[in-house]
Amino acid sequence: MTLSRPRLSAPLRPPAPEDPSPTARMRPKRPEVVGALLGAAFALGLCAYAAAGFADAPWQAVAAAALAIAACSCAPLARGRLPERGRRAAGAARPFAVALAVPAGFYLLERPWNDGLFAMDPYYAAANLCVLALLFAVVYFAGQRSRASVAAFLAACLAAGVANHFVIAFKGQPIVPADLFALSTAASVGSGYTFALDARLLEALAAFAACCAVLAFLPKVPATPRRVAANAVCALAVAGCFGWWMGSYDIEEAYACPVDVWGVKESYAERGSALCFLKRVQDLSPAEPDGYAAAAADELLARHADAVLEDGADRPSAPTVIAVMNETFADLSRYPGLADTDARPAYYHDIAASALEAGDAYVSALGGGTCNSEFEFLTGSSMGYLGGGVYPYVLYDLDGSESLVSYFSSLGYATHAVHPAESANWRRDRVYGQLGFDDFADGRAFSEADTLRGLATDRATYDHVLDLLAADEGPQFVFDVTIQNHGGYDVGGIAEEDAVSVPLADGLASSELDEYASCIRQADRDLAYLVERLDALERPVVLCFFGDHQPGFSDWLFEATYGAQADEMGLDAVQERYTVPYLIWANEAARENGAQAPERGGESMGARSSLNYLGAKVVEAAGLPTTSYQRFLLAASESVPAVNLNGYLAADGVWRWFGEEGDGEAVDTLRSYAIVQYDNLFNKEARSAFWGRAAGA
């Protein structure tokens, strides 16, 4: 009997999917509809923002930009109507369209702020395109070659360009790497500025929308496990090559790309922001100065170890020392044509006339960067040795470095920091602890304080300082960083009776200058209030008062009053925008206690100095014993009376750039200063016994 096997039927295959009908294919998908609605909403919001007065462009430009954005956001709705031939053409054009993202990103990065974009040297344009191509490759491969990765790269370029536009408008300088470590600070103070749209910003927004519309028509790249792995490897390889290039080549030397510390905006504009920004990244790490060794620093400090102030040992009681760094306090009456206007802080000059010392201090900040002025004053360091675009507060560990705080603590003083704002701004909540302050009164201590333009008044901080003195009869060091005069100067809030007007040449006026001058007028009155209260105390008190920098609009103010740009007139003219007033004042009890005008060379009135020397001068004027480091600074100030980010003032009264040939003694002093400063800031493992040693110790 033969058994037959049943025949196995062929396995059933799933039915092939039916091609979508033409009607279904042409129907917009949900993401496309959502994108169109969001784009239309953004266009309407743009019009409303401009209608509210936040646009410096004509209404035609606003309307054109809004219409372009709305049209580009709606364009993907027609993607389904694209014929088969059009879809094949889009697939073939995809590599070329993706490659165009690099020049498009360059345009979005530069156009919002760079007036000289189309006049840029082709060499620098090509160099920036190469840098952006590497960065784009990392983003593109890391994003699995998706359309979203291209859009993300373009969005990042646009965001950087827009950020540069506003930072330059507010501070006069473009973004530098250290700014990225202070984003919380920028967000905290950003409410004081007006973010107005101009024609170039609108143009860039419309261009970005057009790029996104083009991307929407490009086909997707299917993601497979093999492709995902290959793209990840490519991203890592390109990132590794980029890192190797950054570490192996000095951008300034290899690509002729110097960044002038006093003309950062001009350098960015001429050589491209991508290349210049990376050059600034390379400058973040401090290099050892020529001739540095710990032993060399010890030798320099040892030369000042035996000097003793004559009156240092005979002090009946230690004076309290108050240092007020007044936000953006400057005497703009020094500019031509403003001498007899309300730009002059009259009370300051009256107080300076009876001070122990008063004059001009040259700072390393303009329009912002308050923390660098603090750093120079508290540590005796000069930003001239660290370079532009560096914020030591956010980059370096200052624990163990000698400072005014550590000095006063070693004498048994109570040390207090005061700043009526967010404690995290410029990392003060950490840095003040590293420097050694006993406590820090931040914005929370001033929640109920009187305000001017929404900011705690100077007088509120002075009352807090007076309360500290009333609560403790012992000697104190109080460092008060005010905020009342902070920019911008177009927010209003000045009462009519407190407002002043500063006329410019040819009958011109500036509401920005007027609001600033009104703030300074109130700050001037509050300074007089503080001095009056301190003078009435029976305890000895020494006050040091100075501004941290001039307002950001000093660039155009200089040009309006001098008739030329400062950069075209030499270093003396450049330093005009980096000049702030300072004074060292003592009440009657402190004068009887031994506080006196310095007996060193030079005039005590109308003196020219810089913030790095000011702390040592305060200690000397108060009649307190000085450390080897402070005596080194005082000696250095005789041959180099002032030094800042831009250059140095020699004893012959001539400003010189760093590296410029000049007074031999001044050059030797600068070399020694660089060694001592580096040792103080960065040699934490083998601290010399000379650090912190007071006279007679």
Describe this structure in words.
With 697 residues, this protein is an alpha/beta fold. The chain folds into 3 domains: 31-78; 91-180 and 192-281, no CATH class; 311-626 and 640-652, Alkaline Phosphatase, subunit A (3-Layer(aba) Sandwich), CATH 3.40.720.10. 48% of the residues lie in helices and 8% in strands. It has helices at residues 22-26, 30-51, 59-74, 84-99, 101-110, 122-142, 147-171, 183-189, 199-216, 225-248, 251-254, 264-271, 273-282, 294-302, 346-353, 370-379, 392-395, 404-410, 428-435, 458-471, 511-535, 554-562, 571-576, 588-592, 611-621, 628-639, 664-682, and strands at 320-326, 357-362, 414-418, 439-441, 451-452, 455-456, 476-481, 541-547, 579-586, 605-610, 642-643, 648-649, 655-656. Strands 4-3-7-1-8-9-2-10 form an 8-stranded mixed β-sheet, with helices on both faces. Helix 2 (30-51) packs antiparallel against helix 3, helix 3 runs parallel beside helix 9 and helix 20 runs parallel beside helix 21 (511-535). Mean pLDDT is 88; it is low at 307-315.
